[in-house]
Specification:
25% helix, 41% strand, disordered N terminus, 240 residues, Alpha-D-Glucose-1,6-Bisphosphate, Chain A, domain 4
């Protein structure tokens, strides 16, 4: 009887150990990126823009989602959108870098955890859960991203601000890569202060989900606009 109990305990311990090993092996290692390579990020105003036409009007520079035949990637999506808002650049910047509050007001962000990595430059590691629901399409994503303030992060009233992000790890294996940036610039129109906002995002999906391409084509650009508007609305709310 005692021998049998001992065997059962050993089998249970062995089963748990194997399960833990399998679970740890299923989580991809953190991806290696060159954080200083920022050539792909549009950290500046889009040429030939007319700021007056962008007031409260998030406008597409480029947008698209397409099948990607490369190994490990099934669909890639790229968006570049800009707008102008009657709010201070400081207010917009402060909302952007307060990552721990994003789940409270940013659409489709269901949870977020944050770890500050450095003060010079300002940088964070963020774990985010995203939830998407569009008609028949639904998907959940879990991602870990590295955010770096490139300029304007510590100035009391910056003239410009630049923030970049890259995917470090995709715990659920659904993303192959991600890169994004926010660029803010203080401008004046009719002697009133505005902030020019440019938001860029590139995502490469590693897993094919039914309806993904349709959702990107039909709702992707709207989702980007809603995200920009959410940050603006929050900046205005805090400034009141």
């Amino acid at each position: 009887m005692i021998v049998e109990i001992g065997r059962n305990r050993f089998r249970f311990a062995l089963t748990v150990a194997i399960a833990l090993l399998v679970a740890s092996a299923a989580v991809p290692e953190r991806l290696s990126h060159d954080w200083d390579n920022i050539d792909e990020y549009p950290l500046g105003p889009y040429p030939e823009n007319e700021f007056e036409n962008l007031i409260d009007n998030p406008t597409k520079i480029t947008f698209g989602g397409e099948v990607d035949p490369r190994d490990g990637v099934v669909v890639s999506s790229r968006a570049d959108v800009h707008a102008v808002y009657p709010v201070s650049i400081r207010a917009m910047r402060d909302v952007l870098i307060e990552f721990e509050s994003h789940a409270q007001f940013v659409p489709r962000v269901s949870a977020t955890d944050l770890e500050k990595l450095s003060d010079d430059p300002l940088s964070w590691l963020q774990r985010t859960q995203l939830s998407f629901r569009f008609l028949f399409f639904g998907a959940e994503y879990d991602l870990e991203t590295h955010h770096v303030v490139r300029f304007g992060g510590e100035e009391p009233e910056p003239e410009q601000f630049g923030l970049t992000s890259r995917l470090v790890r995709s715990p659920d294996g659904k993303l192959a890569s991600q890169a994004g940036s926010w660029y803010l610039k203080r401008i004046e129109i009719d002697e009133r202060e505005y902030t020019y906002v440019r938001y860029y995002q590139r995502i490469e999906f590693a897993e094919s989900i039914f309806g993904l391409r349709f959702a990107l084509r039909r709702f992707g650009l709207r989702g980007i606009r809603e995200t920009i508007e959410a940050f603006y609305d929050e900046a205005v709310r805090r400034a009141e």
